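ugh ok fine here u go
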Amino acid sequence: MTEDLPILSGAFAAFARQGGYVARPEGGALMIASEAGGEIRFSVHRRGDDLVLTRAERSEDERLIMWSSAVGEIENYLTVVIGDDVRAVTGLGMLDGPTDAPQLATGQHVVQVGDSAFAISRADGIPDHARFATADTAAPVYTYSATVGHSADAVRAAYLAPDGAPLFRLWQPRPR
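structure:
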């Protein structure tokens, strides 16, 4: 039944197409993958009132990444994940984003919510609504943190800006 499939915005679909990604129904989910047949695929499923995002490589089983009741939060994460591919195709450089706790924005912290979920606590101390399965270094929760409090349109616009402003900066090698 297609009416039960999760729906991402037309603006996200257009952004993804710029990087060679397509979103198409697969089973009861919406699958996002490289049109050229890339190794990694993301799937968005419905679970009650939430959208659940999973990731799998080739023939591996899906692995839970995040869940949220807001489609914009799912789109924000996916935008960051595929954004450098979009920038490469459009001739822009890679952007730098947080990959661990010291790189979080001022006032942000990763907090455990319940028994098995993690979230970004904003500067006001209130946890963001998006939930993540892990908080290991380089975990998706850190990748997502740069988008907290910003609309999906603002995140996509930053990825299409030559310098990534105002949300990101161009990637520079980190000192060792």
